[in-house]
Amino acid sequence: MTLRRTIAALFAATAMLHTHADAAISLNRTRVVFDGKYKEANITVRNSGGNILVQSWVDALDASGANEVPFVVTPPLAKMSANQQQLLRIIHAGGDTMPADRESVFWLNVQEIPEMSDLDNALQISIRQRIKVFFRPSGLTGDPLQAPSALQWKLEKNNGNPALQVRNPGVYHVSISGITLRILGRTEAVKHSSMVAPGQTLYFPVARFDPAEQATLRFESINDYGGKDGYAAQLNASAAVRAQALTREAKSTP
Q1: 11 by DSSP, 3-state: which?
Q2: CA distance 74 to 240
Q3: pTM > 0.90
Q4: Adjacent-strand bridge partners of 216
Q5: For the domain bounded by 3-136, which CATH number is listed?
């Protein structure tokens, strides 16, 4: 069989399959903030489709910590009917694998498993949603809502290349997006989104900068409720600065 005929046969076989890949479930929040003075945190799953199974578990933020997840989700597997809601309880299982002096982050996975289809040659796909779980140890100091304005920003060289440096001196993770620099009337999109961990320093490449020029930095930070707050700062290459929260009117000004 020639290559052309093989490709045509594959397309024909694919066309005969009935696919089902629409997500039926939704979560009532985009992130979970787990207060360490409590034993658990909750999230609600809503099912807008047909009968399904929902499987849930917590993962480490990166693969290196796969065996250090001190949380269990109950129920780990739940059967949900159409238009039903299910409360998931994220329970702290104990242990001292997490630092007590700063926030830790994990992934909550919620996977939808559709019931078997009555159609012949039906291809069904399990859809997984992931949101972050921010665990805050009991007694952690500082205000997480002020963490974005505590970030320290600076324009400098990184390995000989112009870069925007950001350092997080606090104890909370800061999720940032829409980072832009405006220099001499030219706006550069620096980074779409990132998360700065406690004590972490990140470098974002920029096209160019002149130490004698001032640059206007703008970015948005995602707060505990999933909303976005705007921040701005005037940067140069002499010293690190902190950004100030923007008012609603200032956010709409280019």
Answers
A1: helix
A2: 45
A3: no
A4: 182, 234
A5: 2.60.40.10
Q: Which residue do the tokens 């350092």 mark? A: 167
d(CA 153, CA 155): 7
Structure tokens at 30: 């985009």
Residues, the chain? 254
Distance (Å, whole) CA 179 – CA 243: 12
Tokens of 169: 């001196």
Specify whether the CB–CB gap between 140 and 99 falls below 8 A: no
Q: Are 55 and 49 in contact (CB under 8 A)?
A: no
Region of residue 192 (left: phi > 0; alpha: psi -120 to 50; beta: else): alpha
Pick the CATH number of 144-251 from 3.30.565.10, 2.60.40.10, 2.30.30.520, 3.40.50.2300: 2.60.40.10
The tens digit of pLDDT for each residue in 21-52 reads 556 899 999 999 999 999 999 999 999 988 99
Question: pLDDT digits over 182-220, tens only?
Answer: 988 889 999 999 999 999 999 999 987 777 778 999 999
Helices (H), the chain: 3-15, 147-150, 248-251
User: Alpha helix (H) ranges present in 118-221?
Assistant: 147-150
Tokens 């140069």 correspond to what residue? Answer: 236
Cα 153 from Cα 209, distance rounded (Å): 14
Q: Residues near 12 by Cβ (< 8 Å), separated by ≥ 6?
A: none
Domain residue extents for the chain: 3-136, 144-251
E runs forming strands in 62-148: 71-74, 77-80, 85-92, 104-114, 122-124, 127-136
Minimal CA–CA distance to 231: which of 145, 103, 131?
Answer: 145
**How much is the CA Rg of the chain, to the nearest whole Å?**
23
Domains 3-136 and 144-251 share a fold: yes
